[in-house]
Amino acid sequence: MNILGGLDRPSAGKVTVDEIDLLSLSDEALNEYQRTKVGFVWQQTSRNLIPYLTAEENIELPMIMSGVHKKQQRREWAHELLNSVGLFHRRHHQLIQLSGGEQQRIAIAVALANRPVLLLGDEPTGEVDSATARTIMETFSRLREELDLTIVIVSHDPRIAEQVDRVVAIRDGKISTETVRQVSQLEALMAGGASGSQEILLPSQVTYKEFVVLDSAGRLQIPKEIREELGIGKRVEMQIEDGRIIIKPVEGEGGEPLKNLTIEEQIAILFSGEKVPQRKPGSVKKLKWLRWR
User: Fold this and answer.
1) Are 168 and 175 in contact (CB under 8 A)?
2) Residues 84, 35, 17, 27: what is their CA dihedral angle, to the nearest 10 degrees?
3) What's the pTM?
4) Which comes out higher in pLDDT, residue 143 or 254?
5) Helix, strand, or coil here: 136?
6) What mean pLDDT value characterizes the chain?
7) Does residue 197 carry a pLDDT above 80?
8) Are residues 24 and 153 in the same domain?
9) Burial of 179 (0-12, 13-18, 19+ CB in 10 A)
10) Per the domain annotation, does 22 fall within a domain?
11) With bands split at pLDDT 50, 70 and 90, how would you rate the model's confidence at 274?
12) How would you list the strands of the sheet with 38-41, edge to edge?
């Protein structure tokens, strides 16, 4: 999130947002990118809003910082954003007069004040109840369509997965799975129907398909609960059969980590199913030395 938002610089690789290479930007250009291309919605509303300003004034503040000097221009866009998040009637209220869900919706409007192309949400539903979380996500979805936004949300909230088009799961710091929202042919036809027609979707028309993600070296992550259920330890058997790759647990390992085994037990596992070479006195000690060397 910090890298996409221009708050941190990556040490390697390539990051491109709206055809802008973030690694090649100067400090001044990076500040301009933060002001004009990206909006943030943080979990803690205290990071999004200034408590002594009204909702309307909070939305106008980023425009003032970006050099929008015409008050009427700022006021019109602020009112449009307040209408978009359904809180125009609360425009003169301060932070203490708004509920948690209302504060987050105002925070979304603040993040959109400078018309960014990328909206980043850091646990935006982490401190609200289920009904309010759904309202916030519906607001994100509506604004994405109205303003042609790209929205990236980082969250531990499983409720969000049912309301977005793509979910990338990260386990142990690495991309593990990707879930993609798939629509039926009927939904596609309804979405492309006559202008002004109301789209009504049934649950059976929308499906979600989960994919396991391979990294650049072809490695994949098998979730811990699946490994434990199948008794998969440090090694597996893999074979190709009927155009498919089949992964099987190694018989006898029972999911026991190799680090808990003695050197002799590890050697026995390595040569399981084969003729184990005769061990000469001191060979285990030598193997251990080579291993740590």
Assistant:
1) yes
2) -170
3) 0.67
4) 143
5) helix
6) 79
7) no
8) yes
9) middle
10) yes
11) low
12) 38-41, 118-122, 150-154
Instruction: Tell me: pLDDT of 194 over 50.
Output: no
**Alpha helices, DSSP H only, in 15-129?**
27-36, 55-65, 71-84, 100-111
Q: Do residue 90 and residue 205 come from a single domain?
A: no
Contact 96, 53 (CB under 8 A): no
Are residues 84 and 196 part of one domain? no
Q: Is residue 74 left, alpha or beta, with left meaning phi > 0 and alpha meaning psi from -120 to 50? A: alpha
Distance CA 24, CA 228 (A): 45
Mean pLDDT (whole number) for 173-191: 65
Listed residues 120, 135, 157: the one ending a domain? 157
pLDDT in tens, 60-117: 999 998 888 899 999 999 999 999 899 999 999 998 999 988 999 999 999 999 999 9
Distance CA(61)–CA(52), nearest Å, equals 12
| Residue numbers of the domain that contains 150 | 16-157
User: CA angle at residue 52 from 47 to 54, to 5 degrees?
Assistant: 90
**What residues contact 53, with CB distance under 8 A and at least 6 apart?**
61, 94, 95
Name the one residue in this structure whose structure tokens are 């990260």.
170
Residue 85 and residue 220: Cα distance in Å, rounded? 40
Burial profile 205-244: b = 16 or more Cβ within 10 angstroms, e = fewer: eeeeeeeeeeeeeeeebeeeeeeeeeebbeeeeeeeeeee
Looking at the fold, whether 142 and 59 belong to one and the same domain comes out as yes
Pair 85, 108: CB distance under 8 Å: yes
- How many CB atoms neighbour CB 72 within 10 A? 7
Which residues lie across from 168 on neighbouring strands? 178
Is residue 278 in a domain? yes
Q: How many CB atoms lie within 10 A of CB 174?
A: 12
